Amino acid sequence: MNIDEKELLSRLISVERALSAERENNKLAHYNEPPLVHEKQLAFHRCLKRNRWVFGGNRSGKTECGAAEVAYLARGVHPYRQNKRTEGWVVSLTREVQRDVAQRKVLSYLKKEWIAEAVMISGRSSAPENGVIDYLLVENVFGTLSRIGFKSCESGREKFQGTGLDYVWFDEEPPEDIYDECRMRLVDRKGLMFGTMTPLKGLTFVYDRIYMSDDPEVWYEFMEWADNPHIAADEIEALTATLPADVLESRRYGRFIMRSGLVYPEFDESVHVIDPFPIPREWQDVMSIDPGLHNPLACHWYAVDGDGRVYVVAEHFAAGKDVDWHAEKIRAKCAELGWKSDRSGRYRALIDSAANQRTLSGTRSVSALFSERGVLTDTRVNKDLYSGINTVKSYLKGDGGGPRLYIFKSCVNLIRELKTYTWGEEDTPVKRDDHCLDELRYYLMTAPKGKTAPDVPGEVRRDKERLAAALTGRRYGRRR
Fold first, then answer.
1. Residues 14 and 74 in one domain
2. Which residue, among 379, 375, 325, has the nearest Cα to 355 in the 3D structure?
3. What is the distance, to the nearest Å, from the Cα of residue 21 to the centroid of all Cα atoms in its chain?
4. What residues form DSSP beta bridges with 55?
5. What b/e string do you get for 285-297 counting C-beta neighbours within 10 Å, with b at 16 or more?
6. Count of domains observed in the chain
7. pLDDT by residue (tens digit) across 236-264?
8. Rounded to whole angstroms, how far apart are CA atoms 231 and 226?
9. Residue 257 vs residue 48, higher pLDDT
């Protein structure tokens, strides 16, 4: 190697080292840069809803996306939101956890020259990563300063009162009173709330108010080890082999754990719940009803495609109403859906055989009352609980071609019941919030079979048939 070649190689090495140093010093600029892209982190940042949560296993990448979100907002460089100067809080469970986890992650995304001031609770402002930070003033791209405050849940709810904020990030699950107090801090500015947590405490308020929420501004995602492109597959396999199944549910997959166990753990909202689409008339089958007057009445509309896949396409669910009211609502929904009826305009439905009993205030049964009001009910349903549960499970699991049961996201009560239906004592499900699930069982136990849509010839095919008819001396559409 001659002198020029050595000098060129030396310069290339120097440039590579400089680029490497710059990359290390500006982690935010290279966050989720190909080829190692964490798709679920990007989904979190792209979501524009105001209350976002990531339920993730340990090392799934959940904390990284929370810290990067804070850095984006503080710097005013968020790739998916309108940017401005911001004030926000990072909330940890304890000061020690703040120092070792959330604070360290946030600092890793902020270049030192961006930090105008670090006010410390303990430690030196010249080395904030080694102490406990009270707040940071961060230079943003607008030439002003954003403020990142750090809070600890151990200080109590009172320490979370007062100021208005643009965002709050919960690193792990906070106490409910602190969650509510932080929500109040966001009202004036229509601020953002986001949380990243491993659900180790069971069915807490986060389960009820976030995971089970039907609030259109609430969004959540589950992250697991395999979602993180920085973890090697052999490491995942080795660690998975050492942990029991119940621990894996939370530690790897970030799932909520129920002591009594879910009846339908096969249900996966990201798989079985789909956006509505126009249902061909040929797919329309029947409704199924679990009757209730004081208790909720649940009714769903079912369709089956040519491959036997079942679609739950609409829902009626209400309590404390009489048959007249329910029948009117059901018929209105049928008209809205363009649901098929008989020549007299009546609609078919399965219904619990208990509907054969007379109402308390009359001599007619619930089934008869519905039929008189244009909803023809069939009470010959199979109510065997265990075979029905196994049938639902088989539809959720499906076969090699995927699940055989899909639910439109507008069927919120059926989705809620599938997520919460649990086993009680003596291998019997807890008899609570199961009205939709009962009539789902009634329907699937009928072994529904679908029909394919008729094959309507396209223009090209029709032209070919006309030409063939002409060549054979036939008139198109009929023989001579």
1. no
2. 379
3. 39
4. 197, 222
5. bbbbbbbbbeebb
6. 3
7. 888 888 877 767 877 888 888 765 578 89
8. 7
9. 48
